[in-house]
Amino acid sequence: MGTGELDREAHVPASGEGKGGAAAPRTLAEALRARGDEGLAALLRARPDLLVPVPGDLTQLATRAGTRASVVRALERLDRFVLQTAEALAVAPDPAPYPVLLALMAGDEGDPDVEAALPRAVGVLREQALVWGDDDRLRLVRTARELLAPSPQHPSPTGLGPTVAEATAGMSPTRLQEIIAAAGLPTTHDPVSAVAALTELFTDRERMGALLDTAPMEALGVLDRLVWGPPYGEVTANPTPPVRWLRDRGLLLPATARTVVLPREAALHLRAGRAHRTPEPVPPAVTPAHEYRPQVVDSTAAGQAYTALATIEELAKEWNEGGPAVLRAGGLSVRDLRRTAVALDVTEPVAAFWLEVAYGAGLIAPDGAAEERYAPTPEYDEWLALPAAERWTRLAGAWLTATRTPGLVGAQDAKGRTLAALGPDLDRGAAPEVRHRVLTLLAGLPAGASPDPDALLARLRWERPLRGGAPDKDAPGTDLRARLASWTLTEAELLGVTGRGALSAHGRALLPGAPAPGTDHPVAGQGNPEAAAHAALPADPEAFNGRRPAHSGVAPHAGAAALLAPLLPEPVDHVLLQADLTAVAPGPLKRPLADMLAVLADVESKGGATVYRFTPASVRRALDAGQAAADLHAFLAAHSRTPVPQPLTYLIDDVARRHGHLRVGAASAYVRCDDDAVLGEILADKRSDPLRLRRLAPTVLAAQADPATLLEGLRSMGFAPAAESAEGDVLITRAHAYRTPPRTAPAPVPDGPPSPGATLLGAAVKAIRAGDLAATVVRRDEPGRDGTSRLVDGELPRTSAAETLATVQAAAMTGSAVWIGYVNAEGAASQRVIAPVRVEGGFVTAYDHTADEVRTYPLHRITGVAEVAEDQL
């Protein structure tokens, strides 16, 4: 395929000043000026980038709405059918009457679905200021037309080429006359009428059909290859007879020296008038893949939710005394991620997910020390004190709003660097919107139904066709939105939001405003999926984020917590001791029991029931923590539903009898024991050689090792030594928790400006209206010095100090409004519409229509004043 340059069409400017009250808007600014406040608010809600900063007036708003960056962002948020409508307008005449647009979308044969959906599509484009004008003069904004219109460098998404007039713009008059003669048309006297005659032929269905009936079959085959695009093809210096036949009759027009193009009018005839091969007015349905009983889904999801809580607690215990070091570039090393995965008994990608969930919820963070390490935060202890269901909603809320994307961990960025868990560069602004959209689509399925992943991805691509194909910046050639959707399904299952792939009842409660089971989301079906995502957000962003302090009195996602709580197992206060030195916990243990048992025994297996095993090392660990043998016997007897087995009693007594028999202290290190035979046994054991022991006295051995190494060495030999202080007292090893200083959870990195709230929208609309009033205000006729009337419109007023004072005083007495030019203390000039209330002491106090508040202005800073025409207020 070749390339060429496309001549631009002439357009009416998309912005500019105009007067309200005209029969039809001449510019986009006039069209916006004719809107009500609700219409302006809808535009700013759909395109929040227009609010940064708030435009000074409607002309500025129209100008900003036509900038390339803003239009690209707006086009990316259109669904497929609305985008197809915009693409059809890009190849339609400018302006285009509604019937012309309908013909391009529905074709000659018509399409009831298209006819029903097209008014909604035009309404969306008009609401977002991508299209303006009445139905008899629809205008696509210039920037959107340039982005969507065809050219050799950027073929149109419709596959249509330039018009006959555009393709023949540089053609010689003689060649034009030859073409119309070969097409069977009478010759003309000028190129303009020749182009018009050829265009009329191509748009006349009957005459065009008769012309094609005379074409060779091979020529029709050439047209078939070009009709749906790309419309450009390369030709040789000596083209084949079929190509020559088409070229002679203008069905192929030269684009470059070796490239021809099928004109738009001819292509539309061959397409039966359609701009698109397959219009898609109806979104693809998300079909169920499997259906389960809702109770099964809820119980499965609740079980996974309990596992999620247990995993986060296990992670915090693993890092309780200080976790792995933070890499210099930020994040967790591959080795530490692997160790964490082993400790949690999960794969590395799943471990990365749990790390990111805990980090996003503010439960773990770097400690900020010189040698920075990860550790639980003080908020983790507050979280741990909450009921289980509320703890889960905090995790789920943090996951829903997080822009950090665990699925990227292990991938490489654009520079070939591996993306680390908890590290930078994991934020993807589209992640929260995709998560919400996926869950909302799941909510529209029948209760207990899991989706067909292919149908789900097809629906997401329909809702965001331009974004759906957008590649990840760190993974060229991949569809980021599809990957985010796939990760969402996996992560929702891990977290317990879904069960067996279907949305659970407590997962549905995370999405206020979600559709009822078995119904598609009404907003999504109307081509505004972003509004659907925002509809799922509660009015209180802090509550949605799940990061409100526990003492605030607000329970985020209380509905989800209430639905989940009955499904979670109740904590138990007992275990079942068995003769094989194990204890079975028939459910989650209450906090004091769980903490003590974690010290006294080792976890052997997990599941519905957790199995703990008692070993000499675990019992010694409890004794090192300050427990006596009698305390352990009493603890087990109090919390066991079965009698304490004799082997376990013997184990505790045996370890306790030997515990502390040997004492290790710091000299370099030493061992002392009242029984010199035990010390002799140690010296005779070859395993003690690395400790380099020697006898100092009958009851004392010295070692060339530190106390900790000596303790471990003797324990590996089967002894049970105890550490002692410099005073000879036994040192008690107590478990302690290391915490970071107070840390805030990582803030999401939004994909563009956030959606404005109702308060901001109302204030912005007021400010824009007031600024527009000042910018377009009309002064009353004022007689000039020569006796003629002068009307100043839009210019900054200039009057003398005396005139200014007199006019302002008169306005204060009559309660009328005036237009002033004002220079502030920084020297910035502006124009305002004010209603003076009081004039005294060199100041005027007035209600400022522009700022919508009462202000005081120094008279010496007012450059001029003029009365406002009554019909302007």
UniProtKB/TrEMBL annotation:
Superkingdom of origin organism: Bacteria
Presence of keyword Hydrolase: yes
Keyword ATP-binding found: yes
Signal peptide from the UniProt entry: none
UniProt KW keywords: ATP-binding, Helicase, Hydrolase, Nucleotide-binding
Residue ranges with Basic and acidic residues bias: 1-11
WYL domain boundaries: 803-865
Domain Helicase XPB/Ssl2 N-terminal: 575-697
Entry-linked Pfam families: Helicase_C_3 (PF13625), WYL (PF13280)
Segments of this protein annotated with the region Disordered: 1-24, 511-533
InterPro entries: WYL_dom, XPB/Ssl2_N
GO molecular function, one term: helicase activity
Protein name from the UniProt record: Helicase C-terminal domain-containing protein
Record organism: Streptomyces ficellus
